[in-house]
Amino acid sequence: MILEDLPNELFIEIFRCLSTLDLLRSVYNLNFRFNQLLFAHFLTSTIDFRSIALRDFRLVCREYLPLLANQIISLRLSNDDRTPQQMEVFLEHGLTLHQLPNLQSLSLYAINLQEAMLPTISQLRSLNRLTLADCSLSCNQNISQNFIDAIWSLPTLTYSYLNINFKENTVILPTVRSVSLKCLSIWSITYDQIQFNTICRHTPCLEQCSILFNMDSPDPVDPFQHEFPSMTRFSLHSSHIEENHLNYVLQTMLNLRQLIVDIDSLDSHSSSPIFNGYQWETILRRYLPHLQVFR
């Protein structure tokens, strides 16, 4: 039996065991059949460049990515110690994210989000998953605001993980409504309750949320308090917690099914510094009648 006698399904399984670089070097342009199999593989798989040498990534940007633009649906780029300067090299070769018309998932790790690439975010009309992990944005507040609003304006985005260090630790809130975003995790920024309510009001379809919460503020008062009936899963991370703050948050999520509370410490100055099982039961029964999972 010769290699080309193997069925297509077996080749696809073999491709899943190989890195993107190995596939491109060994399979691309062997013949029409292998090109079609490779394209089919990329249409269902993530092109992951998180562990590729810089010289190899330059080769990929120069020789392969321009030819594969229509086949890329999921892309991961990194700028950590093992894979430095990937975004810079990507842009140096005249590549932009909006040249990937079928891109549905984008993951950027430890990337310095340059001002020149920010307008391309709003052009990713097919994007439904966005991960920005340990990224930084050193632009002024207006540009940072436009960037966040561009994310909230993406028409098909359903999942977003945002861990962005803004200039001078600025708190940037969306000012436009997302009609599609259902799952949101935000790290590196700690929000108070009014800021969190602002996020939820601009994300009316939100079903799952994980967020850092500041409960050091005085008694919460928000003249624009809304209920968030779509919320079914909520992860709350705070340095400490007080019962009145917690009650205020939970009473807006009557349809919550899962609640995860991560507390670094309890406030010894609080009027009720210790939450025992009875107190938790009282809170959950009072505000979350549909809760199924609590940790």
TrEMBL record:
Ranges where the F-box domain occurs: 1-52
Gene3D superfamilies in UniProt: Ribonuclease Inhibitor
Identification of the protein by name: F-box domain-containing protein
Organism: Adineta ricciae
